[in-house]
Amino acid sequence: MSTPAPRRRLVMIGLDAAELALIEAERASLPTLDRVLARGAVGRLASTASALPGSVWPTFATGTLPGVHGIYHHLQWDSTSMRIRRVSRDWLPSEPFWYALERRGLEVAALDVPMTFPPRLARGVEILNWGSHDQLGPFAARPRALGDALRRRFGARHPMGYEIPVTKTPGELAHIHRNLVAGARRKGEVACWLYDQRDWDLFLTVFGETHRGGHILWPERSDGESATLTPLLDVYRAVDAALATLLDAAAARAATVVVFALHGMGSNTSQEHFVPQIMDRVNAAFASGAHPAASAGAAPAPAAQGGIVRWLREHVPAQVQNAIAQGVPVAVRDAVVSRQITGGHDWARTPGLALLADLNGYLRFNVRGREAAGCLDPDGAPLAAYREWVTACLRSLRITPEGTPLVGAVLAAGEAFPGPRSAFLPDLVVRWTDAPPATHASSPLLGEITAELATGRGGNHRFEGFCALLAPDAGALPPLPSHIVELAAFAGALLGTAGSVDAREV
């Protein structure tokens, strides 16, 4: 009689948007991560974040690229209703790879994996949106009783709370700092508590504190004020301490451990705050025939658009916006964001618009037959002419007074990520140069533009992630993945179920 193969156990620990360069520079104060880097096999991961930072978690979870899953942000453009709406399963359904693993008989638990839908596991445990930076919905748990037990024991809400993208006062920054440190400690306690509930084959948890801390506590402040690394490093230290306890628990069960980040973080180089005004001027000039290739006979567009919500967003003090937004339901905040993007547009005279974004600029063309109120013929000259005009305007922009380019590259998302859902992605992605956020830009085509970054984010995404593998023995192991889309198959291979997470299943 043959001896059955030993049971394989895998613990995957995501450090959301953790920056490997920062970890390597501060290894002396991060002893657990130092041990992971010293003893584990470590590789860097390419990601989809260079074009669509918000796509990384759906890409990880489904093992497919954005053109297949169609998700690039938690709030996206819905062409059927001409508005911004929160991504949901009824709109863009997808299934995480651990569902396929459960169908193969494995015991699965997932805690706070960002950008996933309410749980439907048949036997396993899934807890969502308790302590995630990015969320598609409210807290949800399967089984419900375990979620109730978690909230009774550790609190109904993680201390991190919601991020409101406005400039923060020193007092607000100190409050965020304290909450993130406390939240990292508590997330570690929750993870260890959940890990002890059952003998898991796959246990997956994500620390969102590194993501929120990277945006808000990065030492290069967007408002030009000086700051220190200490608050952000405190968050990393708290995660590091929580990681130590979880690694010990994994070692006690001889589990393989993968510590990973899908993208990183660095000083904020976003110029996205210029995009609404850029598109106002692009549309007005195009409609007036200022561009030689502009469509003849197009109806004139107003010189400025946006409506009252956009005006309020640009003029109401940040502290007031923060206080109001923290106190209203998520659905109300989403509606305000949608009005900020769509308000004031006459769709019959709006060939394109700026979508909600956080690093790169996202542009959408108002194409007839795709958008419910489209005005550009997809097969005619106006769409091609408009695309040429938009691209020319973007490339003509210079930061003043330096004279350096504002735009680094203009990408067609559907061409970069072809697939059955590529039409859900922005039409153009605007990548910036590495200059700090500017307040003045000029173009011979569009004139002078003044705008100010007011998100409160000193840090923003870098495109490379990392993966560290700690195995209990030196047996045959699959090669480390080189891209985040490969992590799903990598998990299956480590569990001895290669092929169980084929993209056709998810």
Q: Would you write up a description of this structure?
A:
The structure is a single chain. The protein has 506 residues and is α+β, with helices and mostly antiparallel strands. Helices cover 35% and strands 17% of the residues. The strands form 5 sheets. An 8-stranded mixed beta sheet has the order 2-19-9-1-8-5-6-7, sandwiched between helices. It has a 4-stranded antiparallel beta sheet with strand order 11-12-15-14. A 3-stranded antiparallel beta sheet has the order 13-16-17, with helices on one face. The radius of gyration is 23 Å and the shape is globular. The model is unreliable at 293-305 and 499-506 (pLDDT under 50).
Number of helices: 16
CATH architecture of the largest domain, by name, is 3-Layer(aba) Sandwich
Number of strands: 19
CATH topology of the largest domain: Alkaline Phosphatase, subunit A
> For the record, what CATH class of the largest domain applies?
Alpha Beta
Mean pLDDT: 89
Rg over CA atoms, rounded to whole Å, is 23 Å
Q: What is the molecular shape?
A: globular
Order of strands, main sheet, comes to 2-19-9-1-8-5-6-7
- Please name the fourth-level CATH homologous superfamily of the largest domain: Alkaline Phosphatase, subunit A
Low-pLDDT runs of 5+ residues are 293-305, 499-506
Alpha-beta classification: alpha+beta
Return the domain count. 2
Instruction: Estimate percent helicity.
Output: 25-40%
